[in-house]
């Protein structure tokens, strides 16, 4: 165990304290209090919005080089401190230390990428239908954005929302996830150390009341949310009632198709990565393994062997391959779905038992369930844990139909040596992202991210697509 941090809100460039009413616990060892936190509410949100609105004109009109410098410097600082912050992330969220370090470096690279994007905002010169008239289009900052972020990527997702927002001249009020506020606060502190002007990025720590206050506040011009479908629906309704921009990312039930012609070892490695690393707590995780008859039994046997061999333990232990669930509630969700699958006729190929290790933590035994039906709850509802199920199919056509047969559509993968099926899958999988001979989880920071159906709503996140959400187009006419 290490020292307990005492966190504050960030409002107008200052740390704003309050009664330390909440705690962030180490899921690997719940005796370890990572941080004590204030509980913000509508009053703190209003102060933060007012600070963001006051900062907006100066920040929006600043040279893009100013925004470049802040983001680039913050990215460099984050890289320098990746060992320290990555360890904090793993201690607070439960990812293994390599995963925590990797996410921290990803956040740093996101900051640096959007530093460059601040200099690349462009418009068009168009020819009018009227002689002597010229037309230009250009992009302008929107205003204040409210950002509501999840716990499973506690520094990367705040970075990929904050960075484009401020790169294009907007200001921000962010609510970090309840279980992981210390990791988010580390990012906010680095941005200010890098020279961010007062009020450009504000953070209010708290529970759902903070999120609701951000969504309802008339001074917030747009909302970007990542979380569950149920909460996302409320966010969308609240934002649209007052005509604020809204962008939602709401999870997945991602299929991985394994065809008979697949390289078996490669297919197993892809499924193991996509389904179980990061404790399965990724919206892009491969939770449905749709396997063709001819390879099914061999695939299940080999994957079960690999899953059973995963070393579950303290996230900070260098020998650990899979850390704990982030909270007790999240741990219980995994075990509840295992019971649901078992009661529905699924067979536990490996796992499914309660883990008791030498430290009190929220550990889940990685679990593979076979003999499940496509419409079973285990195959239609998001578990968000180290639990994967297999569905046996006779053909590629059946596999594609099963893959498309849920209300989610974030990421979808196929393992095959057939160019014909790979190309057909890329065209016809109803998902925002497709993977051929790759895990469904694992995406680059410089390309668009998002899904179809109920996985996503609004413009894409990340990469060159982010400019669509965080700017508005102005069309300007002029005559000589």
TrEMBL record:
<feature type="domain" description="Aldehyde dehydrogenase">
    <location>
        <begin position="23"/>
        <end position="475"/>
    </location>
</feature>
<dbReference type="InterPro" id="IPR016160">
    <property type="entry name" value="Ald_DH_CS_CYS"/>
</dbReference>
<dbReference type="InterPro" id="IPR015590">
    <property type="entry name" value="Aldehyde_DH_dom"/>
</dbReference>
<dbReference type="InterPro" id="IPR016162">
    <property type="entry name" value="Ald_DH_N"/>
</dbReference>
<dbReference type="Pfam" id="PF00171">
    <property type="entry name" value="Aldedh"/>
</dbReference>
<keyword id="KW-0560">Oxidoreductase</keyword>
<dbReference type="InterPro" id="IPR016161">
    <property type="entry name" value="Ald_DH/histidinol_DH"/>
</dbReference>
<feature type="active site">
    <location>
        <position position="249"/>
    </location>
</feature>
<comment type="similarity">
    <text>Belongs to the aldehyde dehydrogenase family.</text>
</comment>
<dbReference type="InterPro" id="IPR016163">
    <property type="entry name" value="Ald_DH_C"/>
</dbReference>
<protein>
    <submittedName>
        <fullName>Aldehyde dehydrogenase family protein</fullName>
    </submittedName>
</protein>
<dbReference type="InterPro" id="IPR029510">
    <property type="entry name" value="Ald_DH_CS_GLU"/>
</dbReference>
